[in-house]
Amino acid sequence: MIYRSLALVSMATFYIIYFAKLFLQKKRGIKVYKLAQNEKNKKNITEILLKIVSFTLPVLELVSIIIGRSFLPIMGKVIGVYFAFFADFLFLNAIISMKDSWRVGVAEDEKDRKLITGGIYRFSRNPAFLAFDLLYIGIVLMYCNIPLIVCTVVAIVVFHLQILSEEKFLEETLKEEYVEYKKKVGRYLGYGKFSFLSVRMYAYFILFIWCILYIITLLLYAGPLLSWIWIWIIIGAFAFLRFMMLKFAIDKDKRLKIPKAIKVIYYVLFAFALTVFCVVEFNVFKAMNAEPERDLDYVIVLGAGVNGTTPSKPLAKRIEEAYYYMSDNPDTLLIASGGKGPYESISEAECIKRELVKLGIDESRIILEDKSTSTIENLRFSKEIINDDSKKVGIITNSFHEYRAGLIAREAGYDKVYSVPAVTLFPVGIHYMLREFFGVVRLWMEYGRVIL
To answer: pTM for the full model?
Structure first.
C-alpha cells in the first residue's frame, strides 16, 4: 500500500506542477502553443502520437498502480520511487528556470522567444522532457508489466522525436545562439564537453542523490537506530565534495587549486581502497549466491535478535532456510546458536528451536547452544559441541553475512565449512552488504593479516 501511495503522490505532484504552470500563464495572458502543435499550427504524425501517449500512458499507469502487481522484486519499487520523486524535483526546477517561456513549443510572442540557459538548463537542454522520461521509468519500475513497458518505450521514443523537431525549430529561430548552446550542454544530460571528467562528475552527483534517498529509505524501513547508518552521510558528503571539485575543474575555476602531489596520493589511495572494496564485495556476493551442499552432518543457525519471544525479521529468514534444508536433508542435525540479549525474553537458540518445532522439525534433531553473544562465539561454542573436525558443517545466516561467517569459521578451526544462505531482506540489504566490507576489514585487523 505504501508504494501505491508514493506512486500516486509522485504522479499527482508532477501533474500539479504541469497544470499550475499552464494556469498561471493563461491567467497572465501569456500565449503558448498547445501540446502536439508545431510552430505553423500544423499537426504531424509525431505530434499526434505525442498527444496520444501523453493522455493514454498516465491512464495505464494509474490502472497498473491500482492492480498493484509487478514483475520486479522490491528493489524495483524502491528505485522506481527514487526516479519518480527526482523527476518531480527536476521538473519543478525546469519550470522555475523557464519563467515565462515554455519548452513544449516556445512562447508565441516574439518578445518571449528567448533562449533559457540558466538554472537547470546549464546541465540539460531538455530537463522537462527528461523529467517526463524519469517519471515514466519510475512508475514502470514500481509496477512493471508488459503493456506498461511497451507504452513507456513508445512514449520515450515519441518524446525524443518531438525534441528533435523542437531543436530544429529553435535552431531556425535562434540561429547561432542555439548552436553555441548545443555545443556546451547535452540534449538530456551534459555539462561542458563530453569527457572522462564530466562522466566522473555526474557519477558523483548520482551517488550523492542516491545517498540522500537511501538514507530516507533506511530510516523508514529500519529506523534511526540502525547500526552504521551514518556511513551513508559520510559517503554522500564525499560524493558532493568530489562533484563540486570536478565541476570547478570543468569550469576551469582557479578558486580550488590542489597541489599535484596531493592529487597523486589521493588517486593512489582511492584506487587501492576501491580495489580492496571490489574484491571483498565480490566475495560477499559470491557467498550470497552459493548453492548449499547437500547431506551436511550439521548446520549451525546463527542467532539474530528476538523481540520478546518472536524472531526478528532476519532471524525469521534464517529459521525459514533451516526448515527447508532440514526437510530436504533428513539426516542432518541442527545447532541453534545464540544467547539471551537484554531485551529478549528467551535465548535466540530457544527461539530458533521453538519455531522449527512448530514447523514440524523433530526436536531430537535440534541441539541448543545458548551461551554465545557474537558470531565468533556462535561458531566457537558450536565447534565444541560438534567436537569432530571430519564433519561437514553448514552455516545458516542471512546471505550478506555468509562470507564473513565463513572466514570466522575457518579461523576457528572448521575444516569442512559450507554456506547455506538465507534470504537477505532488501532494500536494507544493500546497507548490510556495505557494512560487511568494514566487518571484514575489522577481522583482518583483529587477525593481523588479510584472509579471503
So the answer is: 0.87
